[in-house]
Design brief:
Blueprint (H helix, E strand, L loop, with lengths): L1 E4 L5 E5 L2 E5 L7 E2 L8 E3 L12 E4 L9 H6 L6 E3 L1 H9 L5 E3 L5 E4 L3 E11 L3 E10 L5 E4 L17 E4 L2 E5 L2 E4 L2 H11 L3 E4 L7 E3 L6 E5 L1 H10 L5 E2 L7 E3 L6 H4 L1
Parallel strand pairs: 3-6, 6-7, 7-8, 12-13, 13-16, 16-19
Antiparallel strand pairs: 1-2, 1-20, 2-3, 4-5, 5-17, 9-10, 10-11, 11-12, 14-15, 14-18
Length: about 260
């Protein structure tokens, strides 16, 4: 397994010989509702779009997960697996192979990789977006991703998981958390018993501006979480990737424990 963090929530995941582009924001600025005065994120240096993508995987329909300008640049014949709200975005952009995954449903890629949708982040009072469990069928190696730190109790049925990608810091909008790391990340590590955990939803090589920045507050982070793992006598290794670095992650086989 190879993992490349591309800033924010964007990842290139290489598993089972497949190259999966996850929640890509790679082109131009990131804004919500085309309101730069409210929030705008930009990279000082452009991020190259990875080549030879086998699948685009989208967890949410919001711009920081289904970024319209980036999706416009990608080949629209690339298959897409997405939450229902993200599927609407790519369908409107002209993508021709779109699979919507509801919670609990699984899509198999090239008979090599199973992608299962889990219950993810709430968006408004009625919509729950997707997390994902990716499993390499030949080895049973797997990876769990949820970008806002909302983990369903149903995950207990999926343990153990080899690699977890989730926020490790808490981000508050005024007094309300909308990205949950810290204690929530610790709970999911206890639940899933991963060999490795990597942070997502951090800034990376990104500059932020806009009114929202005055009311956002961050707490915790990778070092604080690493200390918490040690204090709770957990064996999970915490890895903080640098943006653009291609990490070779090689979990030890735990097939017997999953039977």
């Amino acid at each position: 397994m190879y993992l490349t963090w591309l800033d924010s929530n964007s990842w290139l995941i290489e598993m089972a010989g497949q190259r999966i582009l996850l929640d890509p924001w790679l082109v131009g600025p990131l804004m919500f509702g085309n309101l730069p005065w409210l929030f705008k994120a930009e990279r000082p240096k452009p991020r190259s779009i990875p080549a030879e993508i086998d699948l685009i995987l989208l967890s949410q329909g919001l711009e920081d997960h289904a970024h319209p300008a980036t999706l416009q640049q990608l080949d629209k014949t690339i298959p897409v697996v997405a939450s229902p709200s993200a599927a609407k975005v790519v369908e409107q952009l002209g993508y021709t192979q779109v699979t919507r995954l509801a919670h609990g449903q699984t899509h198999t890629l090239q008979n090599k990789l199973a992608i299962r949708a889990t219950v993810g982040s709430p968006i408004g009072p009625t919509v729950r977006e997707n997390g994902y469990l990716l499993t390499e069928l030949a080895t049973n190696t797997n990876l769990y991703y949820e970008p806002h730190g909302y983990h369903s109790p149903e995950l207990s049925d999926l343990a153990p998981v080899d690699v977890v990608i989730t926020p490790l810091l808490d981000l508050y909008l005024l007094m309300a958390p909308f990205i949950k790391g810290g204690q929530t990340a610790l709970e999911v590590v206890k639940l899933l018993q991963p060999q490795y955990v990597l942070p997502t939803a951090a800034g990376g090589e990104v500059k932020f501006e806009g009114l929202l920045m005055a009311v956002l507050r961050a707490k915790g982070g990778t070092e604080a979480f690493r200390q918490s793992v040690v204090e709770h006598n957990l064996s999970t290794q915490v890895i903080e990737p640098a943006p653009g670095d291609r990490l070779h992650i090689q979990p030890q086989s735990r097939v017997a424990s999953r039977v």
